[in-house]
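dumping these here so i dont lose them again. two proteins, back to back, each one seq then structure tokens. dont judge the mess
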Amino acid sequence: MNEPSQPAPRRTVYAGYQGKPDPSERERIVHLLQLYRSTENFNAHYLPLWAEASSDDGLKGGLRIVQAREGMHARLLRERLRELGETSFVDVPEERRRTDTAYFAATDRSDLEKLQRLVHLFEDVDAFFKPITDLIDAIREDAHTRELLRTILDDEYATVKWFRLMHARLARGRPHPG
């Protein structure tokens, strides 16, 4: 069995605009949508692998829902990018794709350990999503994207809540049904 891992470093869902000085609203929106879409797409990729590696039926069921939402978010963000004239899309860096996929797909890591990593990441969920909420609050010209992001964040908060509840259940040692 793998040694317990150190908690993953905390990060935010989005590190903020990185590009030319004094970007337009559209440039900030496109930048966020590109990076957010890549993360949602990646999440939709690794979550089924985690479910496959899990022996907990409850976790498997919840991961299916989370995976479906992440995939839907990725598709909606891609569609919005296309509507904004974008024709190419960024992806999660290969190193992160490789290491995070291996971590969550590992059968020699417990579901509790994997959930602990996410609970740690989302410890301050408002800070985690702050760069997105800040951009949402700053959007004046693109109500379509503003409300798309606002409703996607509603799903994200539900996902974090579920991860926390599942973590608490497994931490208490309640056996999985079936």
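---- next one ----
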Amino acid sequence: MDLSNPPVDPWWAVIGPDEGESIWQPLPSRGYVTLKLTPDSMPYDNFTSGIQILSPGCHVREHGHSRNHELGFIYAGHGEIEIEGHKYDVEPGATVLFGRYARHVIRNTGTEDLCLFWVFMPPGLEHWFRGIGRERQPGEAMPDAFPRPDDVGELMAQQRFVPPRSAEESAD
């Protein structure tokens, strides 16, 4: 077999604003996540990407990732990102990289939705969102607040999350 000239099949994707698997998020995040590209929907297995919409006053609880890097881009809204105790105000156009083991919190401190595009390398975050959330259809009203599932600790261990520093964050 001649590997000096391997076959190349072009592949691309254009994904509309309401396209992708969409999942309502439990407290304290609320809002929703839409998975845009995952190994299930593309021929690449080294990343997952999507958007997360956080309602005003909501947040993503403190956590880190022991085997993944997470790149985020704020495209609407205002908030605060805390990484290892350091706080940063964010607004549209802000980019942030959460490296391995960097515990972080994302808070919507504004009066409108905080909208974040993220890329997770290697993939896996899609399994977390599916495990804690509920299916969402574009355009449907936000459901009443709901808690994370009882087996959230098992899901965190499976995803190799770095736990929060405080018991208070664990209970969120």
